[in-house]
Amino acid sequence: MASDGCQDMPQAQYPIYGVRGWYDYDGSAKSGHQQGNKSSQPVTPYGTDSYANERARMNKNGNTGTWSGPAPRGYLGPEGKNAPPPCREIREAAPAAPPCAVLPGGAKLPLMGLDTKGASEDVIDEALDKGYKHLDCDPLNGNEEAVGLAIKSGTALRSELFVSSTLPARGWNLLPQPHTEGVMAACQSSLASLGLDYLDLYWLPPLEGAPDLLGLWAAMEALVDAGLVRHLGLAHLTLPQIEKIRENCRIKPACLKVELHPLCAQRKLVGVCKRYGLALLAASPLPADQPQHKVIGEVAQACGHSASQVALRWNLQRCVGVLAPGNNTTQVLDSYDALSFTLLDSEKRQIDAIDENRQFATVSFATVSDPEEGGATKPSVVLGYYKN
């Protein structure tokens, strides 16, 4: 199984926010390759008497976090003397609190979010009542007013919600550069429609006319300076584009939204972005035209949940958030129950194996690139025998 930073940790070693992975000193999790034996030695809990000593020891070594086991070992070969130890096969209870990723500054990004495309005010009301805290919007969906009304009529405090919206993708080829005024006006328009004072996150998607990404990013940084936006994110951009922005920006992106599901795992993109400290959100985690895969159906039957819930759980279990479709109330409520169970290691490995690098969603103005472009170059590419 390819390592994508998604091997599980025992339930007893969950970080405080319900995400499995590497522990940072704020109690959050950093996903990384976690293959090999898992140590029984407990992680030093945040806030205990020994925490300060542990932190001092790690800082002396130049590190910023601590892992509860040995260094990553990577792939250990076929079954035999070098095979990894047997994986646990006990279905653990899901954490009581919904999992969150911790963004720069300490804000929590709920990993179970709602894609509000096509959602009515009633559907959003039901989603908020169910427990959804992350609402992802786009002015091109034409329903930001409905989202705003649902927020206003709901019982959740604004501080308990995480609301994101997107820079409109169209029309930038007709506007003069720099785009500072256009970006500011677009954000203010979304805020007015939503009836909010600020957005928790604002996405930069592929834009019509392929305008200067760095110039647009600088204009989005001005939104943070003005207090209109708390964090900035990238949507449906390629790894080379992500790296270009990271290397030339003042405020680094906090999150990436891209199509991710069992048939489109994008392991390299996920792994590299996690190492860059970007949280990952799966857009189109349940493509409408994705055929029902036999393996997902078998796992769903074995664990007693729907195929859609299993597909969502697979992403959640590798520390990737999901934006559940908000087309109707039944689907919204069914998706949320993906938080109620966990997959066995063997079940997750079965689903890992069906990746076909197939993208079903059509993203306007998106650039297509080689999945191996960007990040560290594979040895097979360097040696000249890599094939698509």
Q: Would you mind describing this structure in some detail?
A:
The protein is α/β, with parallel strands linked by helices and 388 residues long. The chain contains 12 helices and 13 strands. The chain has helices at residues 51-60, 121-130, 144-153, 180-194, 213-225, 239-248, 267-275, 294-303, 307-316, 329-336, 345-352, 379-382; strands spanning 22-24, 29-30, 65-66, 100-102, 108-110, 112-115, 134-136, 162-166, 199-204, 229-235, 255-259, 279-283, 321-325. The strands form 3 sheets. Strands 6-7-8-9-10-11-12-13 form an 8-stranded parallel beta barrel, surrounded by 5 helices. β9, α5 and β10 (229-235) form a beta-alpha-beta unit. The protein is globular, with a radius of gyration of 21 Å. The two termini are 18 Å apart. Residues 5-52 and 57-77 have low confidence and may be disordered.
